[in-house]
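Let us practice reading a record.
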Amino acid sequence: MSVQVFIGLGSNLDNPGQQIRHALRELSELESSRLLKDSGLFKSPPLGPQDQPDYLNAVALLQTELEAESLLDHLQAIENRHGRVRSRRWGERTLDLDILLYGDKQIHTARLTVPHIGLAEREFVLYPLEKIQPDLVVPGKGQLKDLIKACPRTDIAFLGTIND
């Protein structure tokens, strides 16, 4: 069965804009999947340690027949191809891919939590989601527009469309 999935993309190392553009291309080539839309690029300060560069972020909307954990495997493989190293929590990275929403499902396994933990408090996720689907309902959290009201835009800037 096909499901719509929102994927968060982030990068702050090794030409972040190019990392995100290439990752979107790889998402568009995933088996049993189709890339429907992306949010464009946003720039934001790091969530974790402040001794790292600002991030570029985006959200992609994917139609897929992959099960959630199989999709996670594919996303981690893309991260690894981009040289992702997990050196410290919330640290710098060449590429971070997260399953933000998987249809209307709430998933809690040892490997995966959906909706993504912290989604409701992260402007670098909420505002890109709004660019794609402003009337979105986040399972277990409510209307996206209400989440945005509770998370005012402060340090995030929309940079424009993502061109390949």
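A brief commentary: Residues 119 and 125 are 6 Å apart (CA to CA).
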